[in-house]
Amino acid sequence: MKNLILKGFSIKHSIQKLIKGGISLVIPNHETQVYVRFGETDAAGHVNNTSHFLYFEEGRTKFFKEFFSKRDTSTGFILAAIKCDYINQAYAGQILKVVSSVIKVGYKSFTIEQKLINTVNGQTTAIAEAVSVFFDYTEQKTIPIPEDYKEILLSLKIAKSS
To answer: Which superkingdom (predicted)?
Structure first.
């Protein structure tokens, strides 16, 4: 199987065709830019700790839209857990990059590491780990990740950063 490595490339077509065609597609991360609005800051003038989760959600939402656009409305991924480590401050008017990388794929869940990076100085503002589970909305319970979805996730998996 051939490996095709694309760095910083936003893919707009289905990677399933590439996987089935004998090419393993390796995308190290998914990137989304967010603009920090004044209303997302606190009395100290920096981004409020709750706003980081909105930025991470935007990154995950665009990740899912890009790689799982043909979703079944009776099943799908839902957020089960998220944790955030705050590294550096960010301020209104800055543009942050949300870098989302799959670091673990399990039977019913997968984990995304997400970094907020200042686009001007390259500093990491925060790092999060988000666990999403595959969920059956009719039965209201977690179920195994379908094989075609798991193939996509495994093709996107990278080693966790330190």
So the answer is: Bacteria
Residue 111, in any domain of the structure:
yes
Both structure tokens of 42? 């606190």
For residue range 117-162, list pLDDT tens digits in order: 999 999 999 999 999 999 999 999 999 999 999 999 998 888 776 5
Reported residue count of the chain is 162
Whole-model pTM over 0.85 = no
Q: Which residues have CB under 8 Å from 136's CB, separation 6+?
A: 74, 75, 142, 143
Task: Print the domain residue range for 34.
Answer: 30-156
